[in-house]
Amino acid sequence: MRTRPPYAIWTGILLGLLCGVAVWGQERRAFDLGAGQSSTTQPALDPKIDKILTRLENRAVHDLRARLVWRQRYILDLDEDAVTKSGEIWYQQAEPVAKFLIHFTGKIAGQRKDKLNERHLFDSRWYVELQSRTKTVTRREVRRPDDPGDPYKVGEGVFPLPFGQKKADILREFAVQRIDPAKDDPPQTDHVRLIPRASTQTGRTYKTLDFWVSREGRTAGLPIKVQVAKKDGTGKVNSYITITFSDTRLNQGFSQSVFEIKVPSGYQEIVERLEPMPPPPGVRSPGAEARDSP
What we know:
- By secondary structure, the protein is mainly beta.
- The chain has one domain (8-26, 46-273): Lipoprotein localisation LolA/LolB/LppX (outer membrane lipoprotein receptor (LolB), chain A, Clam).
- The chain is 11% helix and 38% strand.
- It has a twelve-stranded mixed sheet with strand order 9-10-11-12-13-3-4-5-6-7-8-14.
- A hairpin with an 8-residue loop joins strand 11 (206-214) and strand 12.
């Protein structure tokens, strides 16, 4: 039986991966819009928020490469106890679905700095994780070859992305607030806060998701900083994960060989496949007759 992957990292640009990869619901859910409200009685959308979300929806991203820094700080720990990882991300549109790779090359925990070789790859079917610390390469099948679903769609997919999302889908999954600029915000950005609606999978995992969306230059319309407030099993916020992107190269192309992870010598390979799909109603599975015979 295939086990669920640990909740790895989202938005980041892959929240689904940068914060830990979880299998989000694959069926459309009914959303709790709050007491006394319905989808037809939502307050009018702030025109500035509407402009930001429209820019996110319309931002064309064929391929992207950027430096990233991922930092997790637990509420009960001091700042110097935070864990920081640094590396690069590659993303590319492809058929049938897009691919990405995140490669962490350095880690800081407390006063200790270490080199790292940690890779997270989605090749449109398999989520592959290479860990130099455990000398393992784990391949998890997260999408069937004929699956018509979108693994990047917010609220449904395994790896929801913060760009290319439809405004209507974001508003269905989240309440959206615009936050006034602060002195330590990245320059020339709009700060928006997404608050997951109560009945969503996102709401069970996160309290808030903050995005700083670039207004100008080659990154205009893209989040360049993400911060999420992550809940523990009791529903309380226990940590904050912050992801920042820099040196972004957009729509410049790169080799498909990026999306390959070979098993290094001395590493163990672990393969976890999806369980077989059950047969349609009224259709017996292969071998059923033999199992039913006396």
